[in-house]
Write a structure and sequence with these properties.
Strand content: 15-25%
Strand order of the largest sheet: 11-12-10-13
Order of helices and strands: HHEEEEEHHEEEEHHHHHEHEEHE
Radius of gyration: 42 Å
Helix content: 25-40%
Distance between the termini: 39 Å
Oligomer: single chain
Number of helices: 11
Number of strands: 13
Largest sheet: 4 strands, antiparallel
Amino acid sequence: MNVAELHIPSVIAELLYAHNCVIIPGFGGLVGNRVAAHLDSNKNTFYPPYKKLVFNSHLQMNDGLLATALSTQKQVPYNEASAAVDALVKSWNSRLQKGQEITLNEIGKFKKSKDNSIAFHQDFSVNYLAEAFGMQAIHVAATQRGSIKEKISRQIIDSTIPSAKNTSTWMKVAAVIAAPIAATALFFAMNLPHNASTELNWNPFTWSTSEQALPALPADPDVTITIMRPEDFFNKEEVLKIYTEKLTEPKMELSTSVVKELPSEKTTTLAENHYHVIAGCFAEEQNAALFLAELKAIGFAAEILPKTPNALIRVTYGSYNNKLDALKGLASARLKHSPNAWMSEGN
């Protein structure tokens, strides 16, 4: 087996990103179908959309796609690349007839079934759907939800419990205010006749223009009662003077010097770019470098991004720190070079 044959599986894997059908002449075709994102309730896991691969052994006609890609990437003549594919397929068919299993890295496994057909099991560690590039499965924790009755009861109970913060302070203030009011109310309740009633104004900032006579209290030589009016506690003129001074106090103004000393906004550097217009993905650095040189030669500010968790090398048309600029770059790349360009978010 020559060097070209050893790289055929990796070429097939790269073609699956850009094509929904990759035919291996004399062996069969891998057909990709988009599967929507879904939630597996048994595993509490949310899966992103992906490309499901199906093997069809009847698709054996040589469309030239695989041999052309192998010839371009490995810099070998088309006839030599086509012959390498035929030799590899012959070896695969021989191994399958002997009951052996064929494993293609990051693609899947092939094996003869009991009815003499070829069974294919996909390797789901790689997602060949370009729009879902970089997405990972998310595990969600199950939550227990109470009934509406429990929620309402909990809210009512919580609203009646004072906050632990400042609780002692408010209790002291409430005790100071409530004590004289309760003592006065108790005194009148015990000493006023059953048919007597009175109206008292407890607001110290209002004064009545007419004197109201208090009801007569039962005579008791052993008890001396002193009743004080609100105006005995406060002087009307002094209260109004203090209130007026508060309203006319000069307002504080912000100093312009403080504003000038505020730190300037942080500038964004090229290292903080989070939007990338992807031109292609490669398994080998040599292929990525050749493609990078090609893009730069036609005027793109192309770059090579760090490897993905699947060890793929991404080549970009350009990187941006603004999503609007990235969308403009994506439109330009699709118009000028390839309609298969897509945008990736993140480093």
